[in-house]
Design brief:
Length: 106
């Protein structure tokens, strides 16, 4: 019989809690898939967090949302650059496009 994968992970549980028969667990992995988000722990410089919190308070949104949006802009920007380079490389191999470009530039 195929072993079913657990939909949660055990966290480090202090011995005194284990002795009482309890374990710390995370929220279900399926929730991350449903929400399209992942819960992580990350260490950031204090001044960076402070700046995001101040900006978030001014804008009336969560600072974690602001951090996510900043990261999204970076990742999306990098992806667009990769796509532009790929397109340039394709066009430079396309003889028909190059002939048309030559005609337009003349």
């Amino acid at each position: 019989m195929k072993k079913k994968e657990k939909d949660y992970e055990y966290l480090d549980t202090p011995p005194e809690v284990l002795e009482r028969g309890l374990r710390y667990i995370t929220r279900p992995k399926s929730l991350d898939r449903i929400l399209g988000k992942s819960r992580i722990t990350i260490f950031l410089d204090a001044d960076i967090v402070t700046r995001f919190k101040e900006t978030a308070e001014k804008e009336g949104i969560g600072y974690q949302t602001l951090i996510n949006n900043a990261l999204r802009r970076i990742v999306d920007g990098e992806q667009k650059e990769v796509e532009k380079e790929e397109l340039k490389n394709e066009l430079l191999k396309d003889k028909q496009f190059l002939r048309k470009l030559k005609t337009e530039l003349a």
